[in-house]
Specification:
mainly alpha; Vanadium-containing Chloroperoxidase, domain 1; Vanadium-containing Chloroperoxidase, domain 2; 2 domains; two-stranded antiparallel sheet; 2 strands; about 50% helix; elongated; disordered N terminus; Vanadium-dependent haloperoxidase
Length: about 450
């Protein structure tokens, strides 16, 4: 996709039609306006989450081999969250102090914020985005509530676009380490160069820096732990001759695609089954997606810093690692295609750890009962507990032949730290009131749950 420069984004925003900001003179409220609550259907928010997923996929490619997808979902979800809670006032806005009128429609604000952010960054998708936006507004009763919601949604979107200016996206970051033993180099079959290295230096959404939670180094090449990692993945992650069971192979394939998209679908389903109102739905997506974005940024920082080679390189070149307990096999191939970036830490494991820790925290339980689909296997799995997802994620990347177990565990642990930071600093309740027609999340949000209630990483 073309680089979405800041000037282009601001230019697009400037050309959009603006309505009067809340608090300025506007049409006089009719009797019908004053007799009904402003539109706040959470289905509209879920619909625009689907549109965001489709738009991002259309512009990046459905199988883009990096975590960049999380960044865009983070931007959209943060804007939608601010648009909703800035009106309803139930949760602390994300890095914003502006408040909207209580008479505004949160639904109009949410769809406007989503439309405007997506249009700013993906202008090639304007025809479809505009058509969907018109359909969404047509479902909302005309009047002052809609107009105030649209105006506030525009402000929420503009705030996020402005906030993310000069954040390091698409900066020319290069990986320059020589291909020495233990260090990353392009891998078969395509031998692609390091993809999206700029993610490792990008300004995070929640954290203070990309390296705030950088883990310690991976096992040394000469260590027994490194040999264990190599020999395990050599036995369990191969395309042929593997010791995997059929279920283990299916698990590797199940988590072999776009994890961010899998989580979007699972959380939309969760919100429907638990009848979450618009504020709780917005909070769920914002907390999950901003945490996921920072997990990607942190993982890419670690990849840039340590540059550990991938299992396929380690196995092909084991005769150069100086470890007597590893043996080279030039013909070994992984079950999954190796992504074009270093091994340590696992981005999938970091995202899962961060998202599940954050979501369990705001919902007050690790018993999420998530229905997670997979386009890779065309199946859906129900995971009762978040820990079960973390375990399968760690195993899946080993069984797929693309990550050492040490990289997966370190990724999951790092994700937990990001989740804890998110819970301590963002998305916190302001008061325990529930607007008419809304239903709160299934657990108390007045305080954070104890650590024992939060997901952990298996060992």
């Amino acid at each position: 996709m073309p680089r979405p420069g800041v000037r282009a984004a601001i230019g697009i925003l400037a050309t959009l039609a603006l309505v009067a900001v809340p608090g300025t003179a506007g049409p006089t409220a009719t009797a019908a306006d004053s007799s009904r609550a402003p539109s706040a259907d959470p289905a509209a928010l879920r619909h625009w989450n689907t549109i965001a997923t489709q738009t991002i996929s259309a512009n990046l490619g459905a199988m883009h081999p990096s975590g960049q997808v999380a960044v865009w979902h983070g931007f959209v979800s943060a804007a939608v969250y601010n648009a909703v809670v800035g009106i309803q006032g139930r949760y602390a806005p994300y890095r914003w102090k502006a408040r909207g009128p209580s008479t505004a429609s949160p639904e109009a604000a949410a769809v406007t914020a989503a439309h405007r952010v997506l249009l700013a960054y993906f202008p090639a998708s304007q025809p479809r985005l505009d058509a969907e936006y018109a359909k969404s507004l047509a479902k909302i009763p005309d009047g002052r509530a809609e107009k105030q919601g649209v105006a506030y949604g525009e402000r929420a979107a503009d705030h996020i676009v402005k906030l993310r200016e000069d954040d390091g996206r698409y900066e020319p970051v290069e990986y320059t380490a020589p291909p020495e033993p233990g260090l990353w180099r392009p891998t078969p079959p395509a031998h692609q160069p390091y993809v999206d290295a700029w993610l490792g230096t990008m300004r995070p959404l929640l954290l203070e820096s990309p390296h705030q939670f950088r883990p310690g180094p991976p096992p040394a090449l000469s260590s027994a732990r490194y040999a264990e990692d190599v020999n395990e993945i050599k036995a369990m992650g191969g395309q042929t001759g593997s010791s995997r069971t059929a279920r283990q192979t299916e698990t590797a394939l199940f988590f072999g695609g776009n994890l961010i998209a899998q989580f979007q679908t699972a959380f939309r389903d969760y919100a429907v089954r638990h009848r979450l109102g618009i504020a709780d739905t917005a909070r769920l997506f914002a907390a999950a997606n901003t945490s996921a974005a920072d997990a990607v940024i942190t993982a890419w920082d670690s990849k840039l810093h340590y540059g550990l080679w991938r299992p396929i390189s380690a196995i092909h070149l084991a005769d150069t690692d100086g470890n007597p307990d590893t043996t080279e096999d030039p013909g070994w191939q992984p079950l999954l295609v190796t992504p074009p970036h270093p091994d340590y830490i696992s981005g999938h494991a970091a995202v899962a750890g961060a998202v599940l820790r954050t979501v369990a925290g705001i919902l007050g339980t690790s018993r999420l009962g998530l229905h997670i689909p997979s386009e890779s296997t065309t199946t859906t799995r129900r995971y009762e507990y978040a820990d079960q997802i973390n375990k399968d994620m760690i195993d899946a990347r080993v069984w797929g032949g693309i990550h050492f177990r040490s990289a997966d565990i370190a990724g999951c642990d790092t994700g937990l730290r990001i989740g804890d930071w998110a819970l301590a600093h963002y998305f916190r309740p302001l008061r325990q009131t529930v607007p008419p027609g809304s239903r709160p999340a299934p657990a108390s949000q007045a305080s954070q749950p104890s650590q024992t209630a939060l997901p952990q990483c298996p060992r």
